[in-house]
Design a protein that fits this description.
By secondary structure, the chain is an alpha/beta fold. It has a single domain, classed as 3-Layer(aba) Sandwich (Rossmann fold). It is 42% helix and 13% strand. The protein starts with 19 loop residues before the first strand and ends with a helix. It binds NADP nicotinamide-adenine-dinucleotide phosphate. Its EC number is 1.1.1.270. This is 3beta-hydroxysteroid 3-dehydrogenase. Pathway: Steroid biosynthesis; zymosterol biosynthesis; zymosterol from lanosterol: step 5/6.
Amino acid sequence: MPRADRRWDPQHLPDLTGRSYLVTGSNAGLGYFACEQLVRAGARVVMTGRNPNRLAAARAAIHRRVVDAAPALVETLLLDTSNMGSVRAAAASARMGDRLDGLLLNAGIVHPPKKRETTGDGHEVVFATNVLGHFALAGELLTMLASSAGRMVWVGSMSTTVTPYDPVDPQLTADYSGWRAYVQSKVATTALGFEADRRLRAAGVAVTSVVAHPGYSTSGLTPGIAGVNSPSKATRFADNLQALFSQSKEHGAWSLVRALADPTIEGGEFWGPRTGSRGEPRRQTAAKITRDPEIAARLWRTCEDVTGVKWPMEEAAQASRR
Ligand SMILES: NC(=O)c1ccc[n+]([C@@H]2O[C@H](COP(=O)([O-])OP(=O)(O)OC[C@H]3O[C@@H](n4cnc5c(N)ncnc54)[C@H](OP(=O)(O)O)[C@@H]3O)[C@@H](O)[C@H]2O)c1
């Protein structure tokens, strides 16, 4: 049987008791449902987000919907991925925890501004939120992940196949469009996920880096949950018209959760829904541009220069051996 077809029931995950995960963008969408699925399987989850009220609402929703979730299983932590100070502070808090088995780098601007905007740090906001913050967070938590032989999962997108832009100007200083900003950020995220795996292997760090995507997952097909998902009637109507080739965010989270928690998955793999846009998780082939090591190495240098974060490979390799 091909490895990708090995049994994995996304509705009945293996027991994850004792495992600990941190998810970015936990208060809504795919991040929320990934947290819910992990908690349902017994894992401890650190839900992160940039707004304390939205985070509290999401945590309360998990406690309502997962009846046997012990309060200690769900923690919240403020983290704005577009803000380097916030990333560093959140990473410092997360490092106070006992262990970290997995990091789901999910937060993202999905509907970018029409005109180019920059963050307080001076970075283009989509690249900062979707890419730079995650690169920095993964570097800041690498040694902790290595101590548990953990995994990081980067969230890509089918859009990288539709318009495979080369992010030569990753912050789009010259020729900004919202679509280009989004797709470039996802090309970068995916390429960095594969590059991370190459570098971690080369350095002997016992951390796997995997890329996953959720297909086409809409809030109009997703259960209504107070404080988490309350689409308008018009959104429900429009999203239902696309139901044949889309799915709920609850189901979209399946591929991300499998990429995070299935021990048979290896670093450098790419996972997404069966048909590409919907369905149960399957191993897939990522867009060619995201597999180009030269583009990935260039992006890696950019991320190091812009964030000032260099991944502590030696320290992490030592932590892997302890
Ligand atoms: N849905 C799809 O079909 C699809 C397809 C391909 C890839 N993806 C990827 O999947 C991920 C999640 O998408 P989604 O559909 O779940 O989107 P969503 O429903 O809009 O949720 C996005 C999440 O990211 C958070 N976020 C945005 N900016 C942030 C920041 N600066 N700091 C921290 N958190 C921030 C949001 O928090 P706030 O509530 O505070 O804004 C929210 O929790 C994204 O990376 C997206 O690119 C989605």
